[in-house]
Amino acid sequence: MRHVSLRLRIFVLTLSASLVTGGCAVGPNYHTPKIPTPEGYAEAGSAATPASETMPASAPAGQAARAPAVDLAAWWHALKDPELDSLVERAISGNPDVIIALDRLQAARTYEAAIIGSVLPEAEAAGGGGRGTGSDLARGRAPQSQISATNGTGLQSINEVGGFDGVWQLDIFGKYRREIEAARYDTQATRATRNSVLVAVIADVAHAYVDLRGLQVRASVLSAAIGVLRESLRIVSVRYERGITNELDVTLATRELATLEAQDAPVEAQVRAAEYTIAILLGRYPEDMLQELSATAMVPAVPGAVAAGLPVELLRRRPDIQQAERELAAATARIGIATADLFPSLAVAGSIGFQRQDAPGLPIVGAHIWSAGPAAAWPLLDFGQLDAQVQIADLQTRALLVNYKKTIQATVREVDTNMGLYSARQVSLGKLETALTASQRAVTLANERYERGLADFLNVVDAERQEYDIEEQYTSAQVAAAEEFVELYRSLGGGWQNYQALPPIHRPEPAVIAMFQRVLSHSDPLK
């Protein structure tokens, strides 16, 4: 009786300690670190026009037309291109990287839902038995909690043991609560990763679309220039046949025409490659998109300037910053997990079932059995292994804090860089507009002087070559301005905000229910 009383008191004391300290979770509690950011962007004053104004890529930088401010969440609509809008929507639903990111997020959400079970009791049905010369043939075959409940008084052998047993790991020092906390932060980090993929895919589609339109315009300019040179060669050839000019003019015209015709096939190949890139971004084969994308169009118009906001706004807008911050939070929670391993662990275990003597030559005797009580373990001598795990978790958290600061600094640099490039591209575009107008006039004057005999054909060839070069530069500047617009909004973290609706996850069921569900559903993840 004295031993029973002692065990009962130990059980009561340990259970009381569990209840008293149940609200304690060792390890640091996470707080979002306050990282100082600049009051404004270094390039904030570099825009030539207010953010509420827009400028077509084909117009000078100073000639802006009134238009609504750019919506950061759907910035590509500012390009006013229905085909681009359609491509973006299809990429969001069909791009492989977006689909993979969603599956990973769903897996993280499912894990978060399942890990809550770590703080709840577990139960199972089990049993075992055998024949032989031993007196307890169920030992080693049935769970230890059931074996501890067997009673061999008056029996020569226990051949069978079975029943139900359960265990409840008491979360005295908050290890399991920290695991749940870390899982929640991991899910949030994975959500931010998906948002980063959305930002990247939208920007990649817009970038590839701008490249395609630029190449199509370049192909049109090249085709027009070839047509002009063919006409020039025809006129020069006629004049040579009539003795009005010399063979040098015919040779020069032939050379210039052949030089431009040599560029025709490579440019067409680049157009096709741009179409293939867009198809892959949409999760389609190139052959599925050729008919749709082969229709030519101009490079989309871009706003004259944008309102980038303040650097501090990037903290809640850029998914990569959010991901870095959530990874830091999860690492902080894992310090608590590692710290809890230094403390004692306590569990309450129990079982209920039956035992039976059933062997040849012996009477069949059965009885109900049960056992219940606490179990405790405290690591005392591990030669520093557990303490090292705490130190490792702490150092990993410090590294992630530095990474968080680094990510913020890098994003501010990206915005500054892209704002400066965007403004510079528009200034360049305006200057090239003036140069293009002058070069077109120069071609007209050179032809008039040649027809009057006041200049040789070399002047005409030089003027036409310069016009083509400037027109090609102007097209490249249009494309570059549109690309910088895309990159600016990529760096601002726009595009993911309207795509946060997620399909429901499959809520984890107890194993016995899940077994029958899986058997009946015949689910195949590859279908």
Structural class: alpha+beta
Query: Going across the major beta sheet, what is the strand order?
Result: 3-4-5-6
The rounded distance between the terminal residues' Cα atoms is 64 Å
Average pLDDT number: 83
Give me the strand/helix succession. Answer: HEEHHEHEHHHHHEEHHH
What does the largest sheet look like?
Answer: 4 strands, antiparallel
**In angstroms, what is the radius of gyration?**
38 Å
Number of helices: 12
| Shape category | elongated
Strand content: 5-15%
Total strands: 6
Tell me the helix content.
Answer: 55-70%
Low-confidence stretches: 1-6, 8-22, 47-67
Structural account:
There is one protein chain. This protein is an alpha+beta fold. Strand 5 and strand 6 form a beta hairpin. The longest helix is centred in the middle third of the chain and has 67 residues. The N terminus is likely disordered.
Features:
527 residues; alpha+beta; four-stranded antiparallel sheet; two-stranded antiparallel sheet; 12 helices
Please render the helix and strand layout as text.
Elements: H1 2-21, E1 53-54, E2 65-66, H2 82-94, H3 96-115, E3 122-129, H4 144-147, E4 160-170, H5 175-241, H6 247-281, H7 286-293, H8 314-317, H9 319-340, E5 345-357, E6 365-377, H10 385-451, H11 457-491, H12 511-521
Antiparallel strand pairs: 1-2, 3-4, 4-5, 5-6
Helix pairs in contact: 2-5, 3-5, 5-6, 5-9, 5-11, 6-7, 6-11, 9-10, 10-11
Quick description:
With 527 residues, the protein is α+β, with helices and mostly antiparallel strands.
